[in-house]
Amino acid sequence: MDRFHAMQAFVRVVETGSFTKAAAALHLSRTTVTQLVQQLEARLRVQLLNRTTRKVNVTPDGAAYYAQLVPLLAELEAIETGLPGAATAPRGSLRVDVPSPLATLVLMPALPAFHARYPDIELELGASDRKVDPIADGVDCIVRGGAVTDNALKARHVADLRLGVYAAPAYLARAGVPVHPEELADRRHRIVAYRWSTPDGHAPYAMRRGAEQAWVRGRHVVRTDDGNAYLAAGLAGLGVLWLPDYMARAPAAGGALLPLFADWQVDPMPMHVAYPATRHVSRRLRAFIDWIVELMADQHPVTATRR
């Protein structure tokens, strides 16, 4: 038995609550992960996990063992990477989930530079706007807009993205050009609604002009939880959009979208990288987080970037 790999397998099963998800995170087969944990239990002569057909639960002994393993594995990695003769460049696989428009428009074009800098990091990039649980889904980190409220996660603030309000020319020809945000509540106007990960799926847009404030919800005929679909709905004339600059730049430059409320400001969208609070931040994860911060600060307009 490779005791180190068995320990890693056990830790990921505990964190994900699933042999299947742990196997995916470790790029191993489910059978291999199962065998590693079974061998570990046999060596320790202790049952670490309770298994049923539906779920996996950690036993009291398993929970105590897990609590000691996490810092131990982190220390082992630090020792290995700190040896004078050891390779110092970050290496290994990294599972990341990011919003689909950010992946398409920002990250993918910049990845050649990332891999030139870190050739030994294998990046598995999930591109979706669905709610991803880094712990349950076996993901090393997620990049998301909005506040991070889950206490099981640690978050690093990456940037504050500038937002603007836009609509397609066909929509404005049909509904008229609004001159005040409150007009979007009128019956003739529609917005394209985005399903946020809030209890009711809604989040009003805060807009300001000097001391004047407006909170816009609006009516909608379509609501989506995917950024690319959200943009496509606006381009099709289905309603008014709130877009970060990086998404609006190309369609606005080509005339497919027109800006609205030029004298109003939209509260910026904070962007965070989040990862499990109990999980050791590996050198490859630290390298990726630092790169995201650098990328957003250097190449894409933001209102502020804090560490």
UniProtKB/TrEMBL annotation:
<dbReference type="Pfam" id="PF03466">
    <property type="entry name" value="LysR_substrate"/>
</dbReference>
<keyword id="KW-0805">Transcription regulation</keyword>
<dbReference type="InterPro" id="IPR058163">
    <property type="entry name" value="LysR-type_TF_proteobact-type"/>
</dbReference>
<keyword id="KW-0804">Transcription</keyword>
<dbReference type="Pfam" id="PF00126">
    <property type="entry name" value="HTH_1"/>
</dbReference>
<protein>
    <submittedName>
        <fullName>LysR substrate-binding domain-containing protein</fullName>
    </submittedName>
</protein>
<keyword id="KW-0238">DNA-binding</keyword>
<feature type="domain" description="HTH lysR-type">
    <location>
        <begin position="1"/>
        <end position="59"/>
    </location>
</feature>
<comment type="similarity">
    <text>Belongs to the LysR transcriptional regulatory family.</text>
</comment>
<dbReference type="InterPro" id="IPR000847">
    <property type="entry name" value="LysR_HTH_N"/>
</dbReference>
<dbReference type="InterPro" id="IPR005119">
    <property type="entry name" value="LysR_subst-bd"/>
</dbReference>
<dbReference type="InterPro" id="IPR036390">
    <property type="entry name" value="WH_DNA-bd_sf"/>
</dbReference>
<dbReference type="InterPro" id="IPR036388">
    <property type="entry name" value="WH-like_DNA-bd_sf"/>
</dbReference>
